[in-house]
Every structure is written in C-alpha cells, then in structure tokens.
Amino acid sequence: MQAAFQDSVHDSQQCFRHILKAMSEPGTKVTLPSIDVELPIANATLSILLTLVDQSTSLWLDDDVRQRALLDYLDFHVGAVVTRNTQDASFAVVTDIGAIPDLTLFSVGTEEQPHGNCTLIIETSFQGKLSRLTGPGIENDVELALGLPEPLLDQRQALSVLAPCGIDMILVDGNDVIALPRTTQIEVY
Amino acid sequence: MSDPDYNFAYLDEQTKRMIRRSLLKAVAIPGYQVPFGSREMPMPYGWGTGGIQLTASLIGLDDTLKVIDQGSDDTTNAVSIRKFFRRTTGVATTEKTTEATLIQTRHRIPETPLQKGQILIYQVPIPDPLSFLEPRETEARKMHALSEYGIMHTKLYEDIAHYGAILHTYDYPVMVNDRYVMRPSPIPKFDNPKMDNMHALQVFGAGREKRIYAVPPYTKVKSLDFEDHPFEVQRWENSCALCGADNTFLDEIVVDDHGERLFACADSDYCQTRQAEQGGQR
Amino acid sequence: MYVAVKGGEKAIDEAHALLAERRRGEQSLAELTVEQIEQQLSLSVSRVMTEGSCYDPSLAALAIKQAQGDLVEAIFLLRAYRTTLPRLATTEPIDTANMHIKRRISATFKDLPGGQILGPTYDYTHRLLDFKLMVAEQDTSDKGLSAELEILNEQMDSETSEAVIPRVMDLLNQEGLIEKEQPIDDIPVDDITREAIKLPADRDVRLQNLARGDEGFLLALGYATQRGYGHTHPFAGEIRLGDVEVEITPPELGFSICIGEIEVTECEMVNQFKGSKDKPPQFTRGYGLTFGYSERKAMAMALVDRALRAEELGEPVKSAAQDPEFVLMHSDNVEASGFVQHLKLPHYVDFQSELELIRKLRANDSADNKETTE
C-alpha cells in the first residue's frame, strides 16, 4: 500500500486550513502540500479526501477513477463508504469534467437542512475564459479562469433559485485548489 | 511541547474531521446553524466548549492563539482556556490582536480591526435568535427555512412602541447575507457594526446546543432595525481613564463603597497598546 | 395446594441485613468514618444540610454514610431526624454583608470594592481525571499546607475577617437602578416546615420551598428559563461564600447574642426588567441561599425565584418555572422520591379492579364489532 500523509495530524490540519481559506474566500487559489503517490487522481483531490472524508461520509467517484487500486487505497487510508448513487454522496469526485453528471443528480440539501448537500471535487485546469466572481468572502470582485464548461456553469446558475440549498464545489488543478460555495455568483466574459 | 498523554489539541482526529466538515458547510451557508456532534470537553458547558472545539479543530503548529473574555486577556476563563491550548498543543499564544492568527472570544470583538487571514472564534451560549420568541427548535427551524422572521420584527417593534427603543443591548440580532437572522453571541451591540464586511473569517461554536455557524470575510451583516428607528450603538460620556480613548467599549469599575466609578477600555490589549504609544511619545 | 406468600417480617429483616452488608462493602477495607465524610465529601454534606433543612455537618455526614452516598436518601434521613427536634428560639435574620468571606465573585463588574475573590472553586479546573488521587497520599501528617498556601490563608484571614465587603446589590442600590427590598417587620414569616403551603404563596414561602427544593429539579427549571422557557435576562450580580454569625434575642435579655457561626452560599441575580404600569424600568432580583458550599443550587434557586415573580412583575406566565403551583408542589425530593417509588408497593387490589374493567370493556368491544360486521 502506498503512503498517505507523513504526519496525519498536522498535514490534515494544514490541508484543512487551506481548504477553509479557499471556501471562505472564493476565487482565492490555495496550494496543498504534495503527496508522493501514484494514483489516478490529482494530488490535491487526494489531500482533500484524506482531510475530510472518513467512515461517516459517503463518496461518489466517476467511472474514470473507480478502479481497484484507488478503491483499496481509499479503503485503507480513508475508510470511505464508496457509493454508486450520486444522490447518496456527501462528497463526489469528478476527474473527467466532460462526463460530469447533471448537477441535479446530486443532493442539494433541504430547506430545513441545507447543509445536507453534496460537495463536488472537480478536476479541471485553471485556464480559458475569465470569470468574474462576487458574493460572500469576496471583497468587491475577483477575476480568474476556472476552466469550467459553460453547460456546467449554466446548471450551477439554475440551482441558485433553490438557495440556501445548493452544491458546493472544490475545483482542483494539480496541487492547486479554488472553492466555489453555493453563494458565489459567476459571470463569464 | 504538547502534553503527550492527549492528542494534539485534545480532540481525536475523527472528531476534528467531523467539525471541519461542519465548518465548511457553515462557511458555505453564511448565518445558517449547522448541527454538529459536539463532544464532552474537560470544561463545563457554558465555559466555551463550542469555541474550544472549533479552536481545537482549526489550530496548527504555525498558529498564534489569543484568547479573550469580555475583551480582556487576563480574565480567569481566558487564562484557563489559553492554558488548556498551551498544554495540549504547545502552540504560541499572544495578547496582541495584531499578532494572533486565531482569536477565541467570549462577549467581545477586539477594538483593533481584524485582518484578512485571521479567524475570530466566538463562544456561543444560545445560537438561535428565535429561541426567546419560539423556544421549540422544530418550529424555529421552519421559520429559518422559509426566511419567515415576522415574529422577530414584531417583537422589536413592540419594544419601540412600548419603550421607545429596542431593548436588546447585547446579543442583538443581525441579518447575514440578506438571508439568515443570526445571533452574534452576547457581544454588546456596540460591536455589531464590526461584523459587517469584516476582513477576517468569523466562526461561532455552541457546544451545549451543538451548533456551528459562520460569517465569511466581506459578508454583509446588518443589525435588524426599522427605517424610522435606525440601529444605534452605545455611547459613553466618559473616555477611558487609562488611555483616554473615546471610541471604545468601556468597563464600569466600582472603586469604593460610596459608588465612585472609573471607566476603562474593556479591550485590555488595545488599551495597553495605546498607553505604551503615549508613554513612548512623552 | 397453593399457599399464598407470607412471612413479610422475616423477609424485611433479611433485606435489612443485606443492606447493612452492602453498605459496609468489602470487609477487608477500612470502614469510612463520619469525620472523613464530613471533611472529604464536604460538598455532599452541604447539599444534605441544605435540602435536609438542618445545619449539622456531622449528622449530615452520618446520613450520607448510612445512605451509602445516596444523597436524596440522606436528605430524607436528616429531615426525619430534624422533625423530632424542639424549636427553642427563632434567630435574627443572618447578615450576609458581614460575612467572613471565603469566596466572592461578581460577573457584572470587572472589579469592585473588596475585589473578586476566587476561593476554592472548580470553575477553571480542566476536567481531566487526576490519577494521582487513585493512590492515597502516603503520609500527610507532617506535610501540612504548603508554605505558599499558608501565606495565602493568613492573608485572606487578615483581609477579610476585618473588612466588611459591601454587597454588589447595595452599590447598585445607591443609584436606584435596582429594586429596593424593604424588610417587612410587621408581617409574620410563614414556616413551611410547620404548616402546609397555602397558594398563592408569597415570596417568603416560595424561598423557603426553593431552599429545601431538589437541586436537580431547580437546576433543570433554571436552565429552562435560560433557554427561553420563562426567560429572565439574568446576570450573576454576586455570589459569596463564607461564615455568618447566627444570633438570637432571648426575651429576658432584650438584645441579641451570637450563638455560633454557619457557612452559607448566597447568590444574587440581577435581572433586566422593562417596567410596567406601576413600576419604572429597573433591575430586579432573584435570590438564592444555601447552607455550606452549594453554588450550583444557590444560582439555580435565584433563577427560579426570579422566574416565579413573573406575575408580580406583570410578565406573561407561560412556562413551568413561572408557575408557583407547579414549582412549589414538585420541588421537594423527599415528597417526590416517596411518591415515585411508592409504585413499588403492592397495588394488586387496585390492579385487580382494573383487570376486571379492561376485560369487560374488551368483551363489549368485540360484541359490538360482531354486531357491526354481521
């Protein structure tokens, strides 16, 4: 079995603080420390899973990465309950952004319990068209490339009528992470 | 060095993960109270177990921790909590607001404006602003779900009708991001304006009531009021007897049996910093 | 032939023998002395004296020993003893302003005349089991108090026994911000240990009842008021612990003489009050007093005392803690424990009657059903 965090207590604490910063300051890019493993998911995706996921959370993986090596690794280091049903997932990993399921297939929470939604970890590359982000956590606005396809952005926008329900996204590019909580407004130029 | 008999920051890693997940949800839904599996802590409920659990889940070796109660670093409970984290983490502590990365507080927001990257951790006794009007959680949750805050506005307006003013002087309800009415914890309403568009992240922990909520940086926080009765903060006729500040929250200290009073900044670091600066000028 | 169960007397004797054996525990271990309980379980002693309404630490310790540490049972034992005592005199009201202070804190002022005196408190201990206490200290005889602690004790003795520490309430009183409490000398104070409680009850009766009331019950009610079921906006104005003199005025002397000192805990809550038709806005009070060191009880009592004043102050009465009849009739743990546990006594005559009734009703029921289905 390949190794995980060198120091699980302090490495996961560090990762968490980076993720928290990303989530509370949407559009701010944070870089997670790298882990030396050979797996079909990005380094930051792995760090996020090691930091946040355990026996009490259910995890959905896209077909690209639902392979024995990764499943065994997650079973050993994370103890995650892997599900094939998007609706059950508290976390979902999307490595093939072209094949991402419709967002409405994931849980958005309920009016009384809007925190029951799924958090999507989406691998992409922070390139392409610039987006302008506004909302809580952002002073005025911030402009950057997210690398998200337009249909996905449209689906996300369509969910905004359900607020405070919604989907929170953590975008990953290698070791870099940008978070988009449901409250962030995105305009593409 | 931290105490080898306990895990770093006392809590076990699984508990920290649970709290961290809840905290991310709280940040994603500003002002919404996220239920969490609050643990028994080695301090009693009411002493800040919610804040302590948040701090324990946040803190790392690079952090510098400040703990205040009533604005002061030297109040007994602040001393006790600081000592707890020194013992269980070995992390550096400070009294300087500007040096701290994490500030755990009970009942105050520091006078020194907080900066981006700092995290303010509030200890919360009762998280739901509706609980004095509707103590049943099941009912209150429905009202939050529907953003149905009529009873809150009615109550505040009744205060105005009967007494000419809203009678909340502390724990004054706020509207967060135009969506959730939130209790700011029992800070004096003097501190409410500091919450609006604060540069720092604000997180709130209620241990006994098992709720976490948060306000991300640069988020609108509006104290509830009415057009004809705008929100106002307390003002003093006195200035601080120690540093001369005339724009801070003042403690009233009884100095003798005849009821002679002295007024001094509640925020001990702010006051001492000002005194030091004045000493330097002389 | 079946023979009905008899021999209750023998069974009871056997039960008592078993109880004595269980109380004693493992014979090879030293037996607890009453003095040890009095000294080392002093907070239990305080509670038993308070709810037992009898200030006698050694009798309270005896009751705890006899009850195997069951405090409600010990309170019962002390009450049962107390009721046999003659009443020789009535004391003057104790003067807590003249207390020899061991602890005194105020949550409403950062500092005040007399200072904050933390005293012996668990408040800021970290609740980590102290495994050093698993083993008895080897030799305590020559160790005594640490030098540091002795100096502290001496300082406390010299500072506090001479100086009178003013009460926070009196300081607030000077500004007229808090309601005044006038002694009413001409109205006799009721005594709930001699007469049944008459409803509606005045505050003298309510306070007596709360002082004897079960700590857990008052704690839960006081807690409920904090969570919105009868909220009173409380601040702990002052909590003080210490010794006060007890005085009586023998008629033949015409002046009061001190007959001894007792330790008491006093709590004065300051509560917001918005004013009403008859009263201006001001702070109001809730009051708690216990024997010995019983801070939790004194605070809970003060919360409930204030909540029970809702009607007097023109506040809406909506919650259990504001309803004097509900509180006063259910606060006494000797009464409550007796009635709850009496369900263990035989009830078979009544139950037999119920059996008959239910059988009859079911028979009627099924007859009716048959008719309707036919």
Automatic annotation (TrEMBL), chain A:
It comes from Leucothrix arctica. Keywords: Lyase. This is Phosphonate C-P lyase system protein PhnH. The gene is phnH. GO terms for biological process: organic phosphonate metabolic process. GO terms for molecular function: lyase activity. Coiled coil: none annotated.
From TrEMBL, chain B:
It catalyses: alpha-D-ribose 1-methylphosphonate 5-phosphate + AH2 + S-adenosyl-L-methionine = alpha-D-ribose 1,2-cyclic phosphate 5-phosphate + methane + 5'-deoxyadenosine + L-methionine + A + H(+). GO terms for biological process: organic phosphonate catabolic process. InterPro entries: PhnJ. The keyword ATP-binding does not apply. One of its GO terms (molecular function) is 4 iron, 4 sulfur cluster binding. Its EC number is 4.7.1.1. It holds the Pfam family PhnJ. It is an enzyme of class 4 (lyase). Keywords: 4Fe-4S, Iron, Iron-sulfur, Lyase, Metal-binding, S-adenosyl-L-methionine. Belongs to the PhnJ family. Catalyzes the breakage of the C-P bond in alpha-D-ribose 1-methylphosphonate 5-phosphate (PRPn) forming alpha-D-ribose. This is Alpha-D-ribose 1-methylphosphonate 5-phosphate C-P lyase. It comes from Leucothrix arctica.
From TrEMBL, chain C:
The keyword Lyase applies. Pfam families: PhnI. GO terms for molecular function: lyase activity. This is Carbon-phosphorus lyase complex subunit PhnI. The lineage of its organism: Bacteria, Pseudomonadati, Pseudomonadota, Gammaproteobacteria, Thiotrichales. It comes from the Bacteria. One of its GO terms (biological process) is organic phosphonate metabolic process. Keywords: Lyase. It comes from Leucothrix arctica. The keyword Lyase applies.
